[in-house]
Design goal:
Length: 324
């Protein structure tokens, strides 16, 4: 496996041409993809604001955090920008099991010249810092508080990193970049949607130069995303009704009528399920209705009626799928 230590961006690409966004910005890019570059998703629809924030991260070494409700395209946005710049990426899910040793490194026993020797193996942070890599902390608000302090120092621009056990100070590669995604903005599971989300330390939040949010998109943008994701779906009228339905659940959630809501990811699943079952109600039941609690189903049925002008079959409301 060739190392990417010496790779450098040698191109400068126009944001207008590459992302179809009205901007004069140019952004450095690598001439070829390596194994760490995510695959390009040709169907991806870039949101102008979020894309510009991510571009600023790559071009001007800003630390960028994207916050927003689930399934809105936070993680994939960063990857798809990186894919177009051929910028190597490492996406790290900050789940509760990630330990300081995973991040910083640990002594490990290796075989060298038939001898067992103990050697320090760098964790993901020092490894990335030395390389032209975009390190993405996914689910930033799921990280345990003690772990988050490891990250604090490198959030500063020239953020050197001290490997205490090794008496080493690592200066970041000039093309090292850092991004994060999170569902909350540090208040923990306040709205009940994000069980497991931690409160974030504000000194830490303060170190992110750009915080942008990606909540739900304008109706037409969302329709375009579904069309791009599920090109077999050609019924515009149905598609518009589906997106309106999702919008109603979000409004219902916002005013406290529903405890769950449909994300763009749910709408994509619904459209995909429709390709399988060829029935909008069955597809809907599998994609969303079965995730709702029984006492909220009548309200969801009312939304459905409003958008599709047909009743959600009564039997779907209480019985299990097989007993229909
Ligand atoms: N702008 C878009 N264009 C095309 N597909 C999109 C877009 N936004 C989201 N998607 C699709 O929606 C799904 C959810 O996206 P993603 O996983 O990036 O969401 P997320 O915001 O990171 O969600 P979570 O908060 O749950 O981690 C993916 O399948 C992705 O491909
Ligand atoms: Mg995500």
């Amino acid at each position: 496996m060739s190392d990417i230590l010496d790779l450098e961006p040698s191109l400068s690409v126009s944001v207008r041409d590459t992302f179809n966004i009205d901007s004069h910005l140019k952004v450095p890019a690598f001439s070829e993809p390596c194994e760490f570059v995510p695959a390009v998703d040709e169907a991806y629809q870039f949101n102008a604001d979020v894309t510009l924030a991510i571009i600023a991260g790559f071009a001007f070494n800003r630390r960028v955090m994207i916050q927003g409700l689930h399934g809105t395209g936070k993680s994939t946005h960063i990857e798809q920008v990186a894919a177009r710049l051929n910028w190597p990426c490492v996406r790290l899910n900050l789940d509760g099991q990630i330990s300081r040793l995973d991040l910083v490194g640990k002594d490990a026993i290796v075989i060298r010249d038939n001898q067992q020797v103990t050697e320090f193996q760098e964790g993901i942070i020092p490894w990335s810092l030395r390389r032209p890599v975009a390190l993405i902390f996914d689910e930033y608000d799921a990280g345990r508080p003690d772990i988050m302090f490891v990250i604090q120092r490198i959030l500063e621009r020239d953020g050197k990193f001290t490997l205490l056990d090794q008496n080493q100070v690592i200066s970041p590669n000039p093309n090292f970049r850092m991004f994060a995604t999170s569902n909350t903005i540090g208040q923990g599971n306040l709205n009940g949607l994000y069980h497991g989300a931690q409160m974030l330390n504000h000194a830490q939040l303060d170190r992110w130069d750009i915080v942008t949010s990606l909540n739900y998109l304008p109706h037409d943008d969302e329709v375009n995303i579904i069309k791009a994701r599920v090109p077999e779906f050609t019924d515009e009228k149905l598609l518009n009704a589906m997106v309106s339905m999702a919008q109603l659940t979000r409004n219902g959630f916002a005013v406290g009528d529903l405890s769950t809501l449909m994300s763009p990811r749910t709408v994509i699943s619904w459209a995909e399920n429709f390709q399988i079952f060829k029935d909008i109600q069955t597809a809907f039941r599998f994609a969303f209705l079965n995730k709702c609690s029984d006492d909220e189903k009548p309200l969801v049925a009312e939304y459905f009626q409003r958008c599709f002008d047909e009743e959600l079959e009564e039997s779907y409301m209480h019985l299990s799928p097989t007993s229909k």
